[in-house]
Amino acid sequence: DTEVTQTPKHLVMGMTNKKSLKCEQHMGHRAMYWYKQKAKKPPELMFVYSYEKLSINESVPSRFSPECPNSSLLNLHLHALQPEDSALYLCASSPPASVETQYFGPGTRLLVL
Amino acid sequence: ELKVEQNPLFLSMQEGKNYTIYCNYSTTSDRLYWYRQDPGKSLESLFVLLSNGAVKQEGRLMASLDTKARLSTLHITAAVHDLSATYFCAAGQGPARQLTFGSGTQLTVLP
Q: Does residue B88 contact residue B104 with C-beta atoms inside 8 Å?
């Protein structure tokens, strides 16, 4: 199983809402990543978890709150987002300390109204 | 800070023609990746290049790495319409193996 799953596929939320994005993998990977991708742009790294611990936070605003409850699951909690946060949010995983490729999920397309 | 530059940004090709996409990176990186992204879809891994002189081929695509020049190329041979997509290169760095992506090349193969 080389699949990373993400739910929901689409999400529309208001600026006062609280929502969460979910990412799951069962490949035994101990590194998991959140990326943000705007239209016609490359993915930008947001957070890296290694062995369920946050190892990198790329100066992401606090309205994005990541969580890694276990080795297979990664959440991104959203609160008080702005319209400019509308984007495709991609989750990826890879074996840590490895040169193996990162496997990307299908993404959640987020629209903030 | 690792920077990755990719060119061209846009590429229109006739079917059957050959072309090359270039990817330069600014500092030492121990690996280089190529991904494909179809519109509205996620990223699909194409190649992982780990050492100087590495060459990998899959179908009509061939990727190479020159670590001394900090340059990777993705060569397309006898393009077909199914290759139309956006291609990203990404350089890996750091203990968390974080990736820095190039801007992407939007490839359109015309009949």
A: yes
How far is the C-alpha of B96 from the C-alpha of A42, rounded, in Å? 19
Cβ contact B44:B85 at 8 Å: no
Mutation pick from B99, B103, B106 vs chain A, by most beta carbons of A within 10 Å, is B99
Q: Does A91 touch chain B (CB under 8 A)?
A: no
Cβ(B37)–Cβ(B43) below 8 Å: yes
Confidence of residue A97 (pLDDT cuts 50, 70, 90): low
With CB atoms and an 8 Å threshold, state whether A31 touches B103.
Answer: no
Q: Tell me what the mean pLDDT of segment B6-22 comes to.
A: 96
Subunit contact B95:A43, Cβ cutoff 8 A: no
Secondary structure (H, E, C), A18-86: EEEEEEEECCCCCEEEEEEECCCCCCEEEEEEECCEEEEECCCCCCEEEEEEECCEEEEEEECCCHHHC
Q: Is the pLDDT of residue B57 over 80?
A: yes
Nearest CA in chain A to B97: A97
pLDDT of residue A95: 83
State which amino acid sits at residue B42: S
d(CA B85, CA B100): 20
